[in-house]
Amino acid sequence: MQLDFNLNKKNLSNEKENGFSNFINQFINELSNYLDNFTKNKNLTYCVTSDVNKDGKMYVVAQNGTGVGKNIPLDELPSGTTKGTILRQNHGKFVIDEKLTKKSIDEDNKVEFERKKLLAEYKTEDVDYLVTEVGDDYVMLKNQKTGLEFDSCDLKKDVFDEIYKGAILTCKHGEYVLKE
Q1: What is the spatial distance between Cα 172 and Cα 91, in angstroms, rounded to a whole number?
Q2: What is the percent of the chain where pLDDT is above 70?
Q3: Could you read off the pLDDT of 87-116 as tens digits, one per residue?
Q4: Residue 39 confidence (pLDDT)
């Protein structure tokens, strides 16, 4: 019986050592996962996708493929942050990534230039356009001469405020005006 008791003591001792060892291994694994995530998130960029809203916040989206973002108070963002700014986090605070911001703004400007160039091709002087849809910040127009339908967000505010589905616009001096 003495022998069994000693074996049980050894087993208990081994279980304590194994338990402690398991605890250490688990801690090391958790720490490793945390550091892996930290390293991944360290390179995470954020894009400011709005101007300052009425609450003094800007919408910031993590560029991690989820499209998830949140409103961040302006005083938590670096000075000079505007729509299109690319941010990183450094010690828990946002900093502007100048290189990526320049690249992003250059790309946005190029897209905007191409959009305006394309829309200029759609705007034909003295042609009528049927308003087929009115959105919050755009309208769908149908060229009454060609039947081409396209969206536009370059209407003057006073025109945009007066239009409705079914209205007819005409192009005068490169601008859409409500046809009377």
Answers
A1: 54
A2: 81
A3: 998 888 999 999 999 998 899 899 989 988
A4: 44
Neighbour tally for 120: CB within 10 Å: 11
Q: Which amino acid is at 18?
A: N
Starting at the edge strand found earlier in the chain, the sheet holding 139-143 runs 149-152, 139-143, 128-134, 168-172, 175-178
pLDDT, mean of residues 157-177: 90
- Residue 22 scores a pLDDT above 80: no
Residue with the two structure tokens 């400011």:
48
Write the CB contacts of 96 (distance below 8 Å, at least 6 apart in sequence).
78, 80, 81, 85, 86, 87
The pLDDT value given to residue 115: 81
Contact yes or no for 46/63 (Cβ under 8 A): yes
Question: Which residue reads 């995470």 in tokens?
Answer: 44
Q: In this structure, what token pair is assigned to residue 143? A: 């060229």
How far apart CA 130 and CA 168 sit, in angstroms, is 5
Q: Rounded distance, CA 89 to CA 24, Å?
A: 31
**Domain positions in the chain:** 1-42, 46-101, 122-178
